[in-house]
């Protein structure tokens, strides 16, 4: 008996008429097609089937995070209408008919996507938390927002993204907006079926040729590329206009919903799980409707320790994330983020840090600053753990498990009825599936349907419909309400021991704002004066660009000299450089990002420079290619070179 097609892009005809007529048609289709409406997915997703173990090499346990996991957690009341409308307009699969856009149950599905993203994101967090060094994985729940100028967006509810991190994972699950298609082929998160969406990105220096974008689910590739490019441009503009910070990046899912009129570009791609270290391409994960182990899902509400999502998807995805960390040049990915973190509380040190000064006063002050950032990371790690416990192990997690198990019971009953072609009972179950998310079927019809199902199924549907999964926020104290729901213990005191040199201080606070006030005060009371400075108004130039730029680092006669970071932007494009300079130009060992107008991605050079251009053995990274080594003379390529002749720049 064949299962449904796993492709969410299959064209389907839709029945006309009212809600009951539609359900009758759905039941009739189930009768005529036998097993065509079995709501199946793949039990061997790409990452579970192809991902190899990560290399056995220790990852750094520094003051920064290795991974931050972002996910949609709440919808602000002001954003509800825009979110529901965009959710219907940008449906993954097929266009949504107008009559569905106007139905209440579509908003229930949209709310359920947020609630289930909260729940399933915890599975990914737990796997990475248990695999990577302590305190190196942070959670960043987001609130979906809206304003007149920028439209739909999101903002973080914790301070986790203020900590420098190597990789940022945007994760959520997805369901096609039309609940009537629950037994058909579109992407779905219902019962034992989960459709994950994932985007992995970092600072633009992590993967310069792709603006820091590393991996994306297929439907989000174009929007993720546009968001990464916009984030890189905003960060560069902020450095040129120094010191205003760049605006934070919204969730990639809300960016996908907001960016409707995108002109497709030729995003450089590579196949999922393909091991090609250094290749400047975006790994594209196919849209998969994953079917979790039915035996595990059936007892999900009875055994909280069971995690069928980990078995089917998370284990492989986490292995892929770990491998990406091993592939990354971590120091290069973090150096500008470290500058941004230092800038918050010590602008003088931030600029000297980019100059790479070896002065003892700089080293001592930097060590104290790193101890402060590490303490903040530990505090936020403790907050993340409490969010995990509240969301996954607390009351919220218990209700989610009950609902998922109830949904599975509905699907199993519908699958059984599809096999025996019992039209009457099939209609009952289909109506209940709609009522889970607040369908507009008449009250009498729903009541009749509920009489035919088990109490456990009623529990799932009533809890979901009446509570709207508590995803809506109205008051100004949004974060507090979220924490009260997801992590009731977050208002308790958290103790962190801050250590540097031979000194130890224990800091206690109830919230991150209080903790930061205390750590900053401690830092200021211990800080030593610097014996060296860096001029943030020093001139940086490039021989192919007319405009001059800004240099952060060593300076002589108003021009870049020594180590540092330079940026210039004009009609010719953008140049970013980190490394050694002389007489205002790149000179010595370093890395340079070159962005030309209209180009797809950037070209990145690593190696020797002279008077602003490559000179010597240089590694060249271009979109869609693995790094290649060439010999240059005064900016002109003279032939291929060996990697053995190359000197890697230090960041």
pLDDT averaged residue by residue: 81
Helix content: 25-40%
Instruction: List how many beta strands DSSP finds.
Output: 22
Rg calc? 27 Å
Secondary-structure-derived class: alpha+beta
Tally of helical segments: 18
N-end to C-end Cα span = 58 Å
Morphology call: globular
Note poorly predicted spans: 1-36, 422-471
Q: How much of the polypeptide forms β-strand, as a percent range?
A: 15-25%
Largest sheet: 9 strands, mixed
Topology:
Layout: H1 19-33, H2 46-50, E1 65-76, H3 80-89, H4 98-101, H5 104-131, E2 137-147, E3 151-156, E4 165-173, E5 193-194, E6 196-201, E7 213-217, H6 221-241, H7 252-258, E8 269-270, E9 282-285, E10 290-291, H8 294-298, H9 308-327, H10 330-345, H11 347-355, H12 360-393, H13 395-420, H14 423-435, H15 443-450, H16 455-467, E11 472-473, H17 478-486, E12 494-500, E13 503-509, H18 512-526, E14 535-540, E15 549-556, E16 559-570, E17 573-582, E18 585-595, E19 603-610, E20 613-621, E21 628-633, E22 636-640
Parallel strand pairs: 1-2, 1-4, 1-11, 7-9, 8-9
Antiparallel strand pairs: 2-3, 4-6, 5-10, 6-7, 12-13, 14-15, 15-16, 16-17, 17-18, 18-19, 19-20, 20-21, 21-22
Helix pairs in contact: 1-14, 5-9, 10-11, 12-13, 12-18, 13-14, 13-16, 14-15
Features:
transmembrane helix, 651 residues, membrane, single chain, globular, nine-stranded antiparallel sheet, transmembrane, nine-stranded mixed sheet
3D structure, described in words:
Helix content is 40%, strand content 23%. It is α+β, with helices and mostly antiparallel strands. Among the domains are: 19-327, no CATH class; 535-645, no CATH class. The strands form 4 sheets. Strands 1, 2, 3, 4, 6, 7, 8, 9 and 11 form a 9-stranded mixed beta sheet that branches. A 9-stranded antiparallel beta sheet has the order 14-15-16-17-18-19-20-21-22. Strands 5-10 form a two-stranded antiparallel sheet. It is globular. The N and C termini lie far apart (58 Å).
